[in-house]
Amino acid sequence: MSRVMNFSAGPAALPLAALERAREELLDFGGTGMSVMEQSHRGKDYERVHDEAILLLRKLLDVPADHDVLFLQGGASQQFAMIPLNFLDAGARADYVLTGAWGEKALGEGQVVARMFGAEAHVAASTGTGDGKEKSYTRAPRPAEVTADARARYLHVTSNETIHGVQFGADPARPVPTAPAGIPLVCDMSSDFLWQRFDVRQYGLVYAGAQKNIGPSGVVVVLARKDLVASGRKDIPKIFQYRTHADANSLYNTPPTFGIYLVRNVLAWVDAAGGLDGMRARNLAKAAAVYGAIDAAKSFYDCPVERESRSVMNIVFRLPPGLEDRFVSEAKKAGMVGLKGHRSVGGIRASLYNAVEVAHAEALASFMKEFARANG
Ligand SMILES: *Cc1c(COP(=O)(O)O)cnc(C)c1O
User: Fold this and answer.
1) Which residue from 162, 193, 313 has its CB within 8 A of the most atoms of ligand 1, so it is best to mutate?
2) pLDDT in tens, the chain (376 residues)
3) Among 29, 63, 353, which Cα is nearest to 190's?
4) Which residues are registered as beta bridge partners of 93?
5) What is the chain's Cα-based Rg?
6) From the CB of 73, is ligand 1 less than 6 Å away?
């Protein structure tokens, strides 16, 4: 067996221990004579896995009792719609902070729902420059640049912009924005969930698609304050109401059982690998290696993102014209895959999620140094 060094942006690398455990338990889960995929979601064997995954999230993140932990489907993209569907009453407004392409998508869905409900969705701050194909984002705003309306129903931020490589909270000078008193802060943490500690109490609602940092695609984790859940609209379909899933412990309908099982395996690995402090140390070491290779060959590699906003999870950079395809193909020969930048922005992107080994990031950094020497 030879496994590659996987720098994909998502679906992304999973911890080997989580996959090996799944292989071990695949045909006969816990002595039941069947795989976890074949079990009823109402049975006690599945329910143990489901509840263990929730408990591990509560423990790792110190989730307070007044927040629900939910497993939903439809990807983070469905949350772009579900959030305004639940919280935008007629006449209400929602505010969005834009630092990249995912925040734009969230705003777009917010505007669609706002039109349906006679509400509004506004940009509270944006660091975007240019238009159309030239649109780019190279930084997160400083706290003073974000002014949410005091009447906003919520303030939406994207803690890490996966495509543009712009992150809040990696540098103390760019903390995740705070919302005015009484306004719930809503955060898309899809691509930096569980990379380091954060205070759940500061957030009304956090959501994260699993396929970046905590599992396979098909599961979305939502942490939501109970009073916010209870305040949501009741005149939308039940399946889109947070309360439906909160009231049923995420077992209202059939959940993605195998996906949640794998999330359980990943969370158990995070716990055994030193929890969030362990993840942070790993992630900072990996990012230091790759940014170090960029900074050591400044005339060859260009990272467009301002230093304080550089993402620890997704590192984007460009090479001199004509060399990016060669970089990707030579990296592949050296066992490194998933390095091509997003189709909308081009360039190179190295995603260094929790499961990516420190040794793999170091191997990439060595490869980069050698490639710059040979082609610079
Ligand atoms: C990947 C990603 C999404 C979209 O996730 P889907 O599961 O494909 O809907 C949304 N937001 C961020 C920050 C992402 O990285």
Assistant:
1) 162
2) 789 999 999 999 999 999 999 999 999 999 999 999 999 999 999 999 999 999 999 999 999 999 999 999 999 999 999 999 999 999 999 999 999 999 999 999 999 999 999 999 999 999 999 988 788 999 999 999 999 899 999 999 999 999 999 999 999 999 999 999 999 999 999 999 999 999 999 999 999 999 999 999 999 999 999 999 999 999 999 999 999 999 999 999 999 999 999 999 999 999 999 999 999 999 999 999 999 999 999 999 999 999 999 999 999 999 999 999 999 999 999 999 999 999 888 899 999 999 999 999 999 999 999 999 999 8
3) 353
4) 120
5) 21
6) no
Phi, psi of 187, rounded to the nearest 5 degrees: -135, 130
> Is the distance from CB of 87 to CB of 114 less than 8 angstroms?
no
Burial (Cβ within 10 Å: 0-12, 13-18, ≥19) of residue 332: middle
Ligand 1 pocket, residue 75 CB under 6 Å: yes
Q: Which amino acid is at 124?
A: A
Contact (CB, 8 A) for 46 and 30: no
- Burial grade of 214 (CB within 10 A; 0-12, 13-18, 19 or more): buried
How far away, in angstroms, is 12 Cα from ligand 1 center? 12
Overall residue count recorded for the chain in this entry: 376
Please report, in angstroms and rounded to a whole number, the separation of the first and last CA atoms in the chain.
35
CA distance 185 to 176: 10
Distance CA 138, CA 304 (A): 6
269 is catalytic: no
366 Cα: distance to centroid of ligand 1 (angstroms): 30
What domains, with CATH codes, occur in the chain?
Answer: 22-271 (3.40.640.10), 275-375 (3.90.1150.10)
User: What is d(CA 373, CA 313) in angstroms, rounded to the nearest whole number?
Assistant: 26
